[in-house]
Specification:
heterodimer, A: mainly beta, five-stranded mixed beta sheet, globular, B: alpha+beta, six-stranded mixed beta sheet, about 30% strand
Chain lengths: ~140, ~675
């Protein structure tokens, strides 16, 4: 059984999202900042007359911010629309299986959002769970390495 | 039940609601036949539909009613109370039968139909309409369709896009001075505006439609139970989603029935309790951002918590020890437990204690909550809160600390420019705005939102339906806009300051502030509202605002804020004492001062001078610090020396000082301490 995955780039790491959970891919041009939001929530943007909450995925993973504007993956979690900001979006690919994660492959602060590993023509890509990224409890370093 | 019958049931129900008021009016004055035409049309329509759908019982009843109504309408017969009652009974039977088509339950015995028809008086035969097709079949075509909500959402989004494009075009066309183009744009604007209103109406309706059945329900229920009840409805214009309206109808009706059955006492009991014989039931609808709030309050006996607890213990829900520790709010909430009822007799309408648990479950299924506010002996208030998937809010766009936000216009009392009639004071830790001599607690929105402060030039005075007010300083104020407000993502909603998100006219996202969050920050507590009649009275409170402060000996004191001119920070070291007269320098002048006890005199001690004046006399009351403004409901008279009363409702007791006595202070530098009162306060501490 094969499934489709969207491949993207983030903090020098190849990541992937299940294509079934993605609404669309857009370029965010301007973001309205909202006071009193957690650090990974950059603000609100309008995409085709619909409001999306913009999430800086790098910040959600405790990395340096990718910034508010740029390419983003639109997902719907619990009825709310989010734009997941990544460094770049590569391709959609069909893969036969999701592999278990080997601890050494994943940085500690990424683990809460990692839902599997993918082998893309011999290269490793980390499968991320959009719902976890949106809720974002970046793992504290106390997680056993 | 097939679709045509379903349409008939819905339409008939709607028509019954619409003629509800007409029926009540006619019953109130049978001689006044203005409404007869409307009621006639109802039974006529029903009769026609029945012929087409083969519903002989309903047809028979409708036919009889139509005949009689026709004679009344044509002045061939005069109406009296008995006839009106008989007709209402027939209309009710029609309603019951129509409902039973949907529910398949509770169908009254057919034999009783004849009696109802006979009661309509002479000249009406209780003959069933023949069941074969009538000679003139009435065409009954449905004029409603069922549409999926996601499709309506799409239409709404596409329309918003169209509006934005129209705005872009408008800006460009303004540059080109072409009259023909401008005229076309104006027409486009007008049409698109109407289109938007129409699409909005597919989703929304005024809550009045849901509340339409209440007057009749209250009248009937009260009559059935021998109670006297006045119903007040406030907020009929609040708009809600149609889906939400339908869903909330049943819980609302149940709560209203409960209020009349269990809450409001019989006239005799009420008189014995010192209440007016007629009870009051108030239903208030309000909308904040993306929530609708329906508050149903009565002035009845409230929930008898001791009996509820006793019942719960008797049923084995928990043991007596745990029960004794229950807080009043938790005890009142026991009413939501299935199967518990404190009613001694089960009345015809409220069932067997299966009520509030079902109500709560239904409201929670909608994503809403039910809250109780119980005053045993005085009444109960039940609040239903439900989320709206979308709502239209007229909002003012403001700028504070570089951030653009929206605030609902309904919460704005006024906007004033700072300087001149309005100023902000930050004294002794309390932020206060003074607008035309009135003291209003103020908050810094920039601080509350963690923004860098801008240049506050304007003051917004905000009021919420619970009677609280506060003043908010902002940098700039733009236009009013009609915003389509939707729920925010939980990550944005977490702090509770915002009540929704929207796109403004330029297509940029804007977040809507929740006025209740702002007035809650402000710190005044609302006084209970005594008045019961109009909307205007509901919104405004007539009670006393007092300024709380801390005297140098640590006691809490208070003065009526109407007497306070302003607050000034002073350095007691600069005070001048001449024999037993005390003076403080205030803005270059020496002001006569009094203090409740001697001042702590360390060189860099700070104090506050509360400048009191009554238009003629002036005095400075010295205090260590100022706590803030509160609205006082009640006080215990003392009348000793300068202490007029004791105010106990804000935690630690405060001594309300008599303004007139202070202003008359002539020669005393320190006020006498009335010892008995002080001793009492110490015992209480």
């Amino acid at each position: 059984m094969t499934e489709l995955f969207l491949l993207a780039e983030l903090a020098d790491q190849r990541v992937a999202f299940p294509a079934s959970e993605i609404d669309s891919i857009v370029d965010i041009e301007s973001v309205t900042q909202i006071p009193l939001t957690p650090p990974h929530v950059v603000g609100l943007a309008a995409v085709r007359s619909q409001i999306v909450t913009v999430i800086d995925v790098a910040v959600a993973l405790n990395e340096s911010p990718v910034g508010p504007c740029g390419r983003a993956v639109i997902v719907v979690v619990d009825g709310h629309r989010y734009a997941l900001r990544v460094a770049g979006v590569d391709d959609i690919t069909q893969l036969p299986a999701v592999l278990p994660i080997d601890r050494g492959q994943v940085r500690a602060s990424w683990r809460y959002a990692a839902s599997g590993a993918l082998d893309v023509n011999g290269r490793f890509a980390l499968l991320l769970d959009p719902a976890q990224l949106v809720a974002s409890q970046p793992a504290t370093p106390s997680l056993a390495a | 039940m097939d679709e045509l019958t379903g349409e008939f049931v819905n339409e008939t129900r709607e028509m019954l609601e619409q003629i509800g008021d007409a029926l009540l009016r006619w019953e109130g004055d049978p001689q006044k036949t203005d409404d007869v035409g409307e009621i006639f049309r109802f039974v006529h329509t029903v009769k026609g539909s029945c012929g087409f759908l083969e519903l002989p019982r309903i047809a028979s009843l409708a036919d009889a009613a139509e005949t009689v109504l026709g004679t009344v309408r044509d002045k061939q017969r005069s109406a009296d109370g008995r006839l009106v009652g008989a007709l209402l009974a027939v209309v009710d039977r029609i309603g019951t039968l129509v409902s039973s088509l949907a529910t398949q339950a509770g169908v009254p015995d057919e034999a009783t139909d004849a009696a109802l028809i006979a009661a309509l008086g002479p000249g009406v035969a209780a003959v069933a309409v023949p069941t074969e097709q009538p000679a003139r079949p009435v065409q009954f075509t449905a004029n409603t369709v069922r549409v999926s909500v996601p499709l309506l959402e799409e239409i709404m989004t596409q329309l918003s896009d169209a509006l934005l494009i129209r705005n872009v075009m408008a800006r460009a066309i303004r540059e080109i001075d072409d009259p023909q183009l401008t005229r076309a744009l104006d027409r486009l604007t007008s049409v698109v505006g109407m289109l938007r209103d129409s699409v909005t109406r597919t989703r929304m309706q005024p809550v009045a439609r849901v509340l339409q059945t209440l007057p009749r329900l209250v009248r009937d229920t009260a009559a059935l139970l021998g109670k006297q009840v006045t119903l007040e409805i406030i907020g009929q214009d609040v708009e809600i989603d149609r889906e939400m309206g339908e869903a909330i109808r049943d819980p609302l009706l149940h709560i209203v029935r409960n209020a009349i059955d269990h809450g409001i006492e019989s006239p005799a009991e009420r008189r014995a309790a010192g209440k007016p014989a007629t009870g009051t039931l108030r239903v208030v609808a309000t909308q904040t951002g993306n929530q609708i709030r329906l508050e149903i309050s009565d002035d009845g006996r409230g929930i008898a918590t001791e009996r509820l607890i006793a019942k719960a213990v008797a049923c084995g829900r928990f043991d007596a020890a745990k029960a004794a520790q229950l807080e009043p709010a938790a005890a009142a909430a026991l009413v939501f437990e299935p199967g518990l009822t404190t009613a001694d007799t089960v009345s015809a309408i409220s069932g067997r204690g299966v009520g509030m648990d079902v109500v709560r479950a239904n409201v929670e299924r909608l994503g809403g909550i039910v809250q109780l506010s119980n005053s045993p002996g005085r009444g109960l208030s039940v609040t239903l809160r439900a989320p709206l998937t979308l709502s239209i809010v007229t909002a003012l766009i403001i700028r504070v600390g570089g951030c653009r936000l929206a605030i609902p216009r309904s919460s704005l009392e006024e906007i004033v420019r700072l300087g001149g009639k309005a100023r902000l004071e930050d004294v002794g830790g309390a932020k206060i705005a003074i607008v035309r001599g009135l003291f209003i607690p103020a908050i810094s929105l920039a601080d509350a939102l963690g923004l860098a402060p801008g240049e506050a030039r304007l003051l917004l005075v905000i009021a919420t339906p619970d009677g609280r007010r506060c003043a908010v300083a902002v940098d700039e104020v733009f236009d009013h806009e009609e915003l389509v407000v939707r729920a925010m993502a939980p990550q944005v909603a977490a702090y509770g300051f915002f009540s929704g998100q929207s796109l403004n006219e330029d297509g940029d996202p804007v977040i809507l502030l929740d006025p209740a969050a702002l007035t809650a920050l402000g710190g005044t507590t609302a006084a209970t509202n005594e008045s019961t009649t109009t909307v205007a009275q509901h919104r405004r409170i007539v009670s006393e605002t007092i300024l709380l402060a801390r005297a140098f000996d640590g006691r809490r004191i208070a003065v009526r804020s109407v007497l306070v001119d302003r607050l000034v920070e002073i350095a007691p070291a600069q005070n001048i004492q001449v024999e037993d007269l005390l003076f403080v320098p205030v803005e270059g002048e020496l002001q006569r001062a009094v203090t409740l006890s001697s001042i702590v005199s360390s060189p860099d001690a700070k104090a506050v001078a509360i400048l009191l004046k009554d238009g003629v006399r002036k005095i400075a009351l010295l205090a260590e610090s100022v706590e803030g403004l509160v609205e006082m409901k009640a006080s215990v008279p003392v009348g000793r020396g300068y202490i007029e009363a004791l105010v106990e409702e804000f935690g630690e007791p405060a001594f309300l000082l008599s303004g007139s006595a202070l202003l008359a202070a002539d020669v005393t530098a320190a006020l006498e301490e009335p010892l008995p009162v002080r001793a009492l306060a110490q015992e209480a501490a």
